[in-house]
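How a chain folds remains the central question behind the approach discussed here. This step matters because it turns folding into a mapping between discrete strings. The sequence in question and its structure tokens are set out directly beneath this paragraph.
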Amino acid sequence: MRILVVAHNYPRFLGDPAGAYIARLARAAATAGATVQVIAPHSAAAREDEETDHLRVHRFRYAPESLERVGYRGDVSRSALLSPLTLATLPAYLLRFRSAIRRHATTGNPQVVHAHWWFPAGWLVSGLGVPYIVTCHGSDVRLLERSAVLRRVSRAVFRGAGAVTAVSRFLAADLERQTDGLRRPVAVTPMPVDVELFSRGLATPKATPPRLLYAGNLVPNKGVDVLLRAVAVLRQRGTTCRVKILGEGPARSDLERLARALGIDDHVEWSDFVPQDRMPAEYGASMVTVLPTRGQAEGLGLVLVEALLAGSAVVGTPAGGIPEVVQDGATGLLARDGDPNDLADKILRLLSDPGLRDRLTSTGRARAMETYSSTAAARGFLELYHALADDRSAS
């Protein structure tokens, strides 16, 4: 089996969280005996080519290193629109991306192409003449809501795909609602989490005083402002705790100002993203990990899976696919979207009731291991790869 994997997000260095789940899938396929070639954009300090056993990675160049700023930012089209400099390099990025894909499709003769995110990867592979799978992760589904032009562009991508998958039931239903002409229903294919790595967090002592953790992008729809307001409510109620905000993004300065205005800046610790091998300890030291996303802008919420594996209790909101990880009262607690008082209530329940906290965390961890291990997640994709390759051979 020869597989070509295409993504605008893929680990640039050891421990890089960007696209780590894609790398785990690629490694699982290679371990199963497939020859896997990955195409991703280059970024500062990343190697252009890497090879280990049956897995090869090529990061294409499209500008001087200081200007290679497309990709590795989640939603590629949004980042381009926000930055004139990024927008200026976008045409070269897309042209070099397509060129790298075509070159490796010719030399490697893949039997199946796996495109992560329908744009740009799915769009770029759709004319290769090779069976392809498109996996949607969330931000690309939101693109369909924003633009009628992009919805029209996406139709040919989805109609030409041998299979379309999504990382949660919520995203699969949302995708089917916004598209037409699919060959078959969208398959739900959870992304893998490194169970062994995150389980190391179980050995980390809990911080004193109790620590809350948010880990992710600092953008408005993540609801970090709601978490800060909830911490202020807890402080007013006399609850002693601290919160660590671990992430990067355009909302950070506004969030720091809000913490000062709420009078809780002494109880908030700010951190940029850290390598993945340090995340188990971050989760393990935290009593509760919180993902207070607004609206429907959360494809699944893998951060909550990682937290459970590391022994942290979790609180989420009913946003997008979060309830597929946080089953309220069974694997964690759900707070009302945008309601800091309710979020404070849910956090306080976990902080003040060790029995409840341990029961929810233990159940959540067991379910995470069953669903999101690399072996479990890769199994469904390997079946799809073989089915598409067999269909091509039969035709």
Summary: The chain has a mean pLDDT of 91. The radius of gyration is 21 Å. The domain at 2-192+373-394 is CATH 3.40.50.2000 (Rossmann fold).
